[in-house]
Specification:
heterodimer, A: about 400 residues, alpha/beta, FAD/NAD(P)-binding domain, Enolase-like, domain 1, 5-stranded parallel β-sheet, 8 helices, 26 strands, about 25% helix, about 30% strand, disordered C terminus, B: about 120 residues, mainly beta, Rieske Iron-sulfur Protein, 6-stranded antiparallel β-sheet, 3-stranded antiparallel β-sheet, 1 helix, 9 strands, globular, binds flavin-adenine dinucleotide, binds FE2/S2 (inorganic) cluster, metal-binding (chain B), dioxygenase activity (chain B), oxidoreductase activity, acting on paired donors, with incorporation or reduction of molecular oxygen (chain B)
Chain lengths: ~400, ~120
């Protein structure tokens, strides 16, 4: 393999580039990213960076003296992939021909249809988004957050800390029910009320009002929420449009095997855009968490370099964290198949507890609120149990 | 030399946090070695004593950067700077720590708080 092209220059792309070098690949390495910035960290964009407690330099994912001997193409958007010649086409007319390709184009924030061009309406995914939102938050006023998921909740928490009057609108009856289940979703989202942030559930948004700038959010039940600023946090869609027609199988992102291999030889996909097969559950899962984008590229790079000869290992149960209102929330595993959830330590009322999700008596997921030490131990146990096939088959 | 705890009270795989400023943690590895490093992760305000000890490394309980207990070096982001290591002495079953005189690599949020600024 003489040339490897990594498409997407964020956490998953950088992690893949690092793994390539670490695993001894010494050929040409081209990293293509459509943003103008060097790789930066996204989690602080809804937290410390948004609040102003962290500067742009602190977001850098590379260390000062790091040199991967790579050609970095910034501001370069991939528009296509030719399977015959394994060539990545760029929007500016250039192209990069490679023997191996790592797809790491991540995901983009979903927008509300029909809100284009209305000032005061934000989504949050990129550094540029965060800069724009931070500047407007500094002016204060009434913020309506559409979507009570993790990013919406974190923005609400940060904005509340900056003195804004905040309302969160969630279409589902319980926020976070998808990742955490109904019971724990309502426990975690109770943090809003603890801090005087209004949470409206089970009501959809009909539209926004305003001529050039938003002035209110119109709800489906007829209510109107006056707003100086709106943040839309309704999830993200994988950035895989550029792969349409390339022969790379797409299904909720790039459809991958258990080690990131795609339907094309010599092409792997990692991070938020990649829908990896989970051999334990027997289904594909697109995991959109920081730790997955940081750890999984190494397995994909191993598969790429070995030409697929390496047996994929079992995946670690996915882990993510969230910081809201000064509370550290941590979660590992999958709540979907659980038939029970029990609090094993502390108490939800104190916003400090650990809960274990079980299926047929076996732990499948763990949630911690301000329980770092205990959570870490459970996370370790769960990883050991899941990567041991006999137990996980239960 | 600061006394930390008795070796007998620190089982393998466990950590003991010395609440000095900045805090230092003593780790007893599964191989029976004892190391002391700064307790605060260099990325953000997390206590490494709450982390995941494996071999001669501790994984931060928040965002999973790993620190080498022997050198303080960090393996991968989000943390970018090493933690300080401190000399350890075990005498009469008691673990003592000699704090390093180097400047600590405190995370931005903690550093600004210590400097009297807003966290
Ligand atoms: C505000 C925010 C807060 C978050 N907080 C947390 C948290 O607390 N905990 C947690 O676990 N996770 C969190 N996450 C999720 C985490 O940041 C992501 O899982 C991670 O960034 C995924 O990395 P990635 O490299 O796969 O994708 P991305 O970070 O999305 O990077 C993909 C890159 O590819 C580029 N790209 C896209 N299309 C093209 C193209 N055609 N050509 C070239 N380049 C392209 C994009 O511009 C982008 O730079 C958060 C995310 C956001 C946005
Ligand atoms: S606080 Fe340790 S890695 Fe982030």
């Amino acid at each position: 393999m003489r040339t490897v092209a990594v498409v997407g220059a964020s956490l998953a792309g950088l992690s893949a580039a690092r793994s390539l070098r670490k695993r001894g690949y010494d050929g040409r390495l081209v990293v293509i990213g459509d943003e103008p910035h060097r790789p930066y960290d996204r989690p602080p964009l809804s937290k410390e960076f948004l609040a102003g407690g962290m500067g742009e330099a602190d977001l850098a994912l590379e260390t000062d003296d790091e040199d991967l001997q790579a050609e970095w193409l910034f501001g370069a958007r991939a528009t296509g992939l030719d399977r015959q010649t394994r060539t990545v086409r760029l929007a500016d007319g250039r192209s990069v021909r490679a023997d191996g390709i790592v797809i790491a184009t991540g995901a983009a924030a979903r927008a509300l249809p029909g809100t284009d061009g209305l000032a005061g309406v934000h989504t949050l995914r990129t550094l540029d988004d965060a800069r724009a939102l931070r500047d407007e938050l500094a002016l204060g006023g009434r913020l309506v957050v559409i979507g009570g998921g993790f990013i919406g909740a974190e923005v609400a928490s940060t904005a509340h800390g900056m003195g804004l009057d905040v309302t969160v609108v969630e279409a589902a009856p319980t926020p976070l029910a998808g990742p955490l289940g109904e019971t724990m979703g309502s426990v975690v989202s109770a943090l809003h009320a603890d801090h005087g942030v209004r949470l409206l559930c089970g009501v959809g948004v009909k539209g926004l009002s305003g001529e050039t700038r938003v002035d209110a959010v119109l709800l489906e039940d007829g209510r109107t929420l006056p707003a100086d600023l709106v943040v839309v946090g309704v999830g993200a869609r994988p950035c895989v449009d550029w792969l349409e027609g390339s022969g790379v199988a797409l299904e909720n992102g790039v459809k991958c095997g258990a080690d990131g291999r795609t339907s094309l030889a010599g092409v792997v996909a990692v991070g938020d855009c990649a829908n990896w097969y989970d051999p334990v559950a027997g289904i594909h899962r697109r995991v959109e968490h920081w730790t997955g984008a940081r750890e999984r590229p190494d397995a994909a790079v191993a598969a790429l370099l070995s030409g697929g000869a390496a047996e994929p290992g079992l995946p670690k149960p996915p882990y993510f964290w969230s910081d809201q209102y000064g509370v550290t929330i941590q979660f590992v595993g999958h709540s979907a198949g659980a038939d029970s959830v029990t609090v094993e330590e502390g108490s939800p009322d104190d916003r400090s507890f650990l809960a274990v999700y079980r299926r047929a008596g076996h732990p499948v997921a763990v949630l911690g609120m301000n329980q770092l030490r205990l959570f870490t131990r459970w996370r370790k146990q769960l990883a050991a149990a899941t990567t041991f096939p006999a137990m996980s088959a239960l | 030399m600061i006394p930390a705890c008795r070796l007998a009270d620190l089982p393998r795989g466990e950590a003991f946090r010395l609440d000095i400023d900045p805090p230092i943690s003593v780790f007893h590895t599964d191989d029976g070695e004892v190391f002391a490093i700064d307790d605060t992760c260099t990325h953000q305000d997390a206590s490494l004593a709450d982390g995941w000890l494996e071999g001669p490394e501790v994984e931060c309980p928040l965002h999973a950067s790993k620190f080498d207990l022997r050198t303080g070096a960090v393996d991968a982001p989000p943390a970018k700077l090493p933690v300080r290591t401190h000399q350890v002495l075990i005498e009469d079953g008691v673990i003592y720590v000699q704090p390093s005189t180097d400047a600590p690599n405190l995370p931005p949020c903690v550093a600004s708080r210590l400097a009297g600024g807003a966290a």
